[in-house]
Each structure stands twice: as C-alpha cells, then as structure tokens.
Write a structure and sequence with these properties.
248 residues
Amino acid sequence: MKYYGITDRGLVRKNNQDSYVIATSRSGDLFAIVADGIGGNLGGDIASRMAVSHFSKVFSECEGFTSESQVKDWIAKQVDTANSLIYEYGVKRPGLKGMGTTLCGALITKTGIFIVNIGDSRAYTWSPTQTLHQITMDHTLVNDMLMHGQLTPEEAANFPRRNVLTNALGVWETVRSDIDVHHEKISGILLCSDGLHGYVDEDRISAIVLSKEMDPTQRSRRLLKAALDAGGYDNVTIVLIDFTGESE
C-alpha cells in the first residue's frame, strides 16, 4: 500500500482552512481524513485542525478492532466527541460561533474498509477494472434537491447555492455521519475537498487517478495542478491511497 497527502491554499483564498491526516494505530490500521473548514474568518481553519488532531490522537492509541460493529461504534463515538469539542469551542468564543468543518475519512482495517462522511468532501474508489466511483453522498442543499427531483442535473450545475451544506462537524450540537463498510475488491481510494471536485471534472480526475505511469505522490500533485489550472478558487486537499504497492 502506498499513500500520499497534499494540501494547498489555492490561488484566491488568503489562508488554507483545509486539513488532513494519515494516521496509523498500534495494530497497524490506517486512517486517512480530509477536513474542509467552513465559516470563513469564523474559525474554519481551527475547526478542521481540531477534527484531524482529535482523530489522529485517539486513533494512534487504538489497539485494533475485532468486528465491523466495533469499528462503526468507535467511529460514531469519535465523531460525536469531535463535534462536541468544536461546537463548544465556538460557543465559548465571541465571533467563532458557527465554525465547523467537513470530514471525509477512510479507515482501513483487517475487518474491512470503512468510509465516514460529513459534508461535501468526497471519497472515490477505483477497481481492478480501472473505473473511478464516487462512494460518498454530498450533504448539500443542491444534492438534497436533486434527490427529491426539485432540480435537474443541468440545473444543479449552475445552482447559485450549490455549496450550501446541510450537515457539518461542529456547527450544531448534534451531527449525523454516513459510515459504510466496503468488502469489495478496491485498488485505491481518493479523498478530496471540493477545491478539487468542485472545479475539475470527473473525467479529468479519473484520467489522473487511473494513470499507471505515476505513483500516488505524482498523481496527487498532478490533481493539485489540475485544480490550480482550473483557477485555484478554493483550498485544495488530496489524499491518495493505492493498495497495489509498498507503503511509503
């Protein structure tokens, strides 16, 4: 397994509110997370850093898992804890109420690959047949309207409020998270913030991710370049995990 992570401020934003971590546990499991802070100057950068810091700390102390239910319960508990930490931090500090972050993570264990998602950062997988699939659902107003038939895909592409989130870590007292386990044959995982998928079309992302001529480091940097070439309008964070090679 090879993996690589990269984050960049982009060409427009004054600071980088994205964070990421690739952590290992005492049992050798791996947890990769991308977090995209929200709230502008209201502490989005603080929220994303708090999220990855919390998960990195508790996961590094984890002794391992013996069942799917144990993994899911652990993730759910840590999501609730991180949500409370961020929410209470914001409530207690003038000007920071409403701070929050997306969170998209891949927890790779001997019992399966678990994907957790909150917000609109995304996880993609690709298969031995070299097909890229988005496996998370965006928690956004535009996606909700799409699912309820209130917008067509064409209308959604130009919807003026397409970045409005319906779910985020730390904004409200409670949070919902999608936690799914994958047992199918997966060749690799891409985690990214919307600084990539919001500006680079999926065909271009797929062509780079599925390139056999580049290792994960080169592919991640090429994805970043594609986002910057598209205008670099947002912070960009990418974590690429390839199961076909040795660990870096």
